[in-house]
Amino acid sequence: MPKDNKIFIYDTTLRDGSQAEGISFSKTDKIRIAQKLDAFGVAYIEGGWPGSNPKDMAFFEAIKKLKFKNSKIAAFGSTRRAKSPVENDANIQKLLEAEVPVTTVFGKAWLLHVNEALRITPDKNLELIADSCAYLKDNGREVIFDAEHFFDGYKDNSKYAIDSILSAANAGASTIVLCDTNGGSLCSEVSLICDAVRKALPDNVRLGIHCHNDGGVAVANSLLVIEQGVRHIQGTINGIGERCGNADLCSIIPSIELKMGYHCLPADQLRNLREVSFFVDDLANIRHNPRLPYVGESAFAHKGGIHVNAVMKNPATYEHTEPESVGNKRRILVSDLSGKDNVISKLAEQCIRPGLDDESVRKILAELKRKENLGYEYEAAEASFALMSKKVLNEHDPFFELNGFRVIVEKRGHNEPCISEATVKLSVKGKQEVTAAEGDGPVNALDRALRKALRRFYPEITDIQLKDYKVRILDGDDGTAAKTRVLMESGSGDKTWGTVGVSENIIEASWEAMLDSIEYILYERLAEKK
């Protein structure tokens, strides 16, 4: 392990991350995320830009009343304005009024911005940087200087770019952060530039990096330069941020901890990484990306039969690290690419008659491939797979029988809303049930009518909720007569399960998925009572 093995993680989810399109955190959201990140153990949490908006000011006001165990809270802002003495500059004063231990100020390191954006002399820009850092340092703050557009500036005029960060370092900034603000620098460039900068900076000044992902290499750039002496890495949870996003801390942190011989979290916290990842997406009200490295649903999902066979013998054959180390888990998928091992593993996961003979497994696999050829998809429909397997094994005992259903959609005028009504006729425990219900749409009406008919026989279904509903056209060449696949995700409490239906009629496909959803949970809950 390297002698200097501590990496300082600086999380800017609450500021840079909130600048992502479609994301807006409330003050309460920001406080909850900050507390979650503190428990997780990142070194710095950037709370926002005080003075830029009321929400950030409210956050800093509220954060004063809270205690943080592992993290320092940072306030972000710019260097002073050219026409304002530092002691009278409104932005600098707001940074102090935030009353947090760390201030992060950004300044220009690229002459293009000095000449075109600020329209001041190069020497004046260096003065703004030095004045701001010195004043904040003299007022008892730990000062971090973000050298904006540093890599572009270095490629344009390396001497001036170095002069800009030395101005900050000599004035009291304890950490200099090189920003790839446009996100277009490649790994080879970043590595060489960081190596040159480390040699130019005083030894007592920490070197950091802040990468955007416009070139798709933000994580690679952030990890690569650790070998060039970078000990401070900025990024966001799940890589959220402006344009293509920031360096993703959910990839950076485990790579540092598990692969590079450095550490950046308190002991045993890495296993909470996936929980933190989902927590932030939940508060941002965005669907979690299943393909995220380490933390995504698909990160340790195996589908091909050869892969599954090898993983069941030794997970290291197709897994670069243990999923449990980051709070994830291995998933075995079933599809038309599956082999026997996929089916055996999935059946064990669903607790369906362990120790099946080879002939039974082959029958299930054959039915799986037949159904997938018809358009069914079971990767996200594990409940439908469980029911299909029970039917193949002759272990399926229907809880009710459908005698018929009817769905009516009526629109009575141009400005009137559509009215949807469904009627279902069922045989349940030897009794005939006919019920009707209205809904927001035909599927909702059908769902309500079905539950209404079953509730007095099976109260176990009362708390089931539809979580997600997806429709996919399978053969677009047939136009509106195309075969349709419906995927449903249902839930009750912390448990969720997926079902699938396929038909040329979208209502029938929805009914199929709906039926599987209810039958699956009835099997589960009645089994629990035995």
What characteristics describe this protein?
530 residues, alpha/beta, TIM Barrel, Double Stranded RNA Binding Domain, 3 domains, eight-stranded parallel β-barrel, three-stranded antiparallel β-sheet, 17 helices, 20% strand, elongated
Give a brief rundown of this model.
The protein is an alpha/beta fold. Helix content is 38%, strand content 20%.
Radius of gyration using CA atoms only? 29 Å
- The structure class reads alpha/beta
Low-confidence stretches: none
Estimate what percentage of residues fall within beta strands. 15-25%
Mean pLDDT: 91
Extended strand count: 16
Q: In the residues, how many domains can be counted?
A: 3
> What gap, in angstroms, lies between the N and C termini?
54 Å
CATH class of the largest domain: Alpha Beta
| Helix count, DSSP H or I runs of 4 or more residues | 17
The named CATH superfamily of the largest domain: Aldolase class I
Shape: elongated
What does this structure look like?
- This protein is α/β, with parallel strands linked by helices and 530 residues long.
- It folds into 3 domains: 259 residues, Aldolase class I (TIM Barrel, Alpha-Beta Barrel); 98 residues, Double Stranded RNA Binding Domain (2-Layer Sandwich), CATH 3.30.160.340; 58 residues, Double Stranded RNA Binding Domain.
- It has 17 helices and 16 strands.
- The strands form 4 sheets. The chain has an 8-stranded parallel beta barrel, surrounded by 9 helices. It has a 3-stranded antiparallel β-sheet with strand order 11-12-13, with helices on one face.
- Helix 1 crosses helix 2, helix 5 packs parallel to helix 7 and helix 14 packs across helix 15.
- The radius of gyration is 29 Å and the shape is elongated.
- The two termini are 54 Å apart.
- The model has no long low-confidence stretch (mean pLDDT 91).
